[in-house]
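Researcher: We're teaching a course module on how sequence relates to structure. For the next exercise, students receive a sequence and then see the predicted structure as tokens, so they can try to spot secondary structure elements on their own. Here is the exercise chain.
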Amino acid sequence: MNFLDTFLASLQIQKIADTASDVNTVIPDILRYDTISQEDNPNLLIYAPLVNAAGTISVLNLNAFILTDFPYATMLYTENGNGRLTVNEKEYAVPEHTLALIAPDTNYTFQPTILPWKFKLIFFQYNHSPFMQLFKDKPVINMNIPSQSNVLLNLNVLTTLPVHMTEASFVSAHMALNGILSFLYFVEMQSIAEHDDAFLPSNVLKIKSYLDAHYSEEFSLTLLEKLFYMSKYQICHIFSKHLGISPLQYINKLRLTQAKKLLLTSEYSINEISSIVGFDNYSHFARLFKREYGLTPAAFRQLALEN
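Model: And here is the predicted structure for the students to work with:
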């Protein structure tokens, strides 16, 4: 079943007031991803974003839109007016300039509280991405987006794609989606770190602080053993238990985040950036970067320059 059939099968509309309702009100403008043949365009298998629909919606009537057994993740950004999400009987306000990210396979309701309610709506799949860790402990991420944030530019890219999708369009959409999710991931992880560091066991906090300060240096569990008087097994076990990833995964994320910043803001060569952030093998760096962001470092930098 394609996206539109799944969407319509999952959607119910409930009147809040005695007003007419129309399912087309909340069907996003862009429903073109299901119609692109990847068999005829094999390169798209590498770059294709897993976005299923995107558009700008204006709701003029007081109706609640209920999605049940909906397998796609949802991104909702309020431009004007005010809305409300209800997930698992918990309510989340979505006022102007607020972005809500809703986990896949979540039953939820969205409705206006101030009319007219104008918002951007994006449905996507990211089941095998590290970004899905955003939903590890909660079904909704809800945050205010600064007016100068690149998130707004990326939302506009996703909701104004051309009618005829080309490989370049797919790459742009993929980059835009990754850009938004990277921002949310960074802010959420930073928030978790700020709130949770105080509750980390002292030995875990010491290891984390060391990695934060020395991520660009040579990494080895043997060195951590000597520094913290713990076995490799103990270090990996307690670190993963409290932070959800291994020390190696954590330091690689720090390195990749810094590499991404340098690709966008510096004139260092890609080999130099790989070395600066701590990778001693360029091929390994490029492979991890592509796994994290969907593009090679060279393609990422080139697309950023073109945009």
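Model: If you want an answer key for the exercise: The domain at 200-306 is CATH 1.10.10.60 (Arc Repressor Mutant, subunit A). DSSP finds eleven helices and eight strands in the chain.
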